[in-house]
Write a structure and sequence with these properties.
Helix content is 42%, strand content 12%. By secondary structure, the chain is of the alpha/beta class. The protein has two domains: 247 residues, Alpha-Beta Barrel (TIM Barrel); 65 residues. Helix 9 links the parallel strand 10 and strand 11.
Length: 367
Amino acid sequence: MTLFATSTPKDPVASLPLPARPLRIGNVSLDSPVVQAALSGYSDRSMRLLARRHGAAYSLCEVLLDTFVAVIGTNRRNRAKIAVADDEHPVGGQLMGANPDDFAPAAVRLVEAGFDVIDINFGCPVKKVLGRCRGGYLLSVPETAIEIVSRVREAVPGNLPVTLKMRRGLDDTARSLDNFWTIFNGAFSRGVAAITVHGRSVEQKYVGPSNWGFLADVKRQAQDRIVIGSGDLFSAEACVAMLEQTGVDGVSVARGAIGNPWIFAETLALLAGKSPLPPPTIFQQRDVLREHFTLSEELHGVDRAGRVMRKFGIKYARLHPDSLEVRSGFISVTCNADWQRVLERFYASDGPGRKATAEVDETAECV
C-alpha cells in the first residue's frame, strides 16, 4: 500500500558489490548485513529511500507510539508517518508503548500499511518515554515485555517477521542483566525472528562507549539465533569492525546514517574487500541534498518539507569542508527557496568532502 507517489531513483545502487554475509530475518532475505535503524524524528520514507538507494539492505521507520498508530487520522502529516514506498521493500515498522493490549491493533495497522516486519522498541532511553513506562523501561519488567511480544506475534500473519530492539539492560546491576536474558530468551521462544541489541544501558543514554564485548557475549550465547548489533557505528570501518569483533549477524546503523547515506555503500565496499571509498564530493553531496528535499516534499508537502529538512541539513553539513558555515545556513531554512540558496552558496564548486565524525545527539535515536 503506497500512500503517496514517489519518484523513481535516478541511479539505483544495483551494481554495488555484495558482501559475503547476507542476512535473513525470518522469511525476509537481505542482500547484506548492513541495515538502517529506526530513528525517532528522522527515518521517514524519504530518509529510508535514500538509505536503500545507497546500499542499505533494509530500513525501519521512526518509532511510532502504539496508541497513535491504532487511531491514526487521515491528515497528511499523520499518514506520512506510516507511508511506505513501492521501491523500499523490505521495510520495518517499529512500535513503542506500555500496555500489551495496545500493541496488537497497532501491529495490524502497520501490516495493512505495507510494512514487511514489525519491530518492538524496548530500548528508548529518553526521560519522558521512561516516565510513561515505555521503551527502555520495559527492560525492568520482563513479564510485561514478554507479554507484549506474544501479543504482537499472535496479531500479525505467521509469515511476517516480528523483531525486537533492546539495550543491554536498564543499568549495570546483576538484576538488570538477569532481566535482559529473561526478555532475550523469552522473546525468541515467543517467535521473534531477530533481536537488535544496543551495547549501552538505558541509564547511559548516549554517553560513553557502546559495549561491544557484551554484544560478542550475546551472539555466542544466541548461537544460530539472529542478533543485530548497534551502537557507535559512525563509519564504514566501525560497521566492519563490529561484524568482525562481535560475530553479530548484522549491524544497525542509527545516528551515523543521519545526513550520511553514503555510509552504506562505503561499508559494502569494505566488506567486498575493496579500498575505502573517499567521502562524497561537494557535488555528490549537492545531488543528494536536492534528491532528499524532493522526496521530502512528495511526502510532507511543500509547506512542511522545509522545516522537516532543516534538521537533516544540519547533519549533512558535517561532510562539507566548511561545516560550521554550512550548518548555520541550514539552520535558517524554512522552505525550498532557502534550501536552494544554501546549495547555491556552499555547493556551487566541486571539491573533496570531509569524513563524518561521531557526535552526541540524544534526540536523534530512540533505541
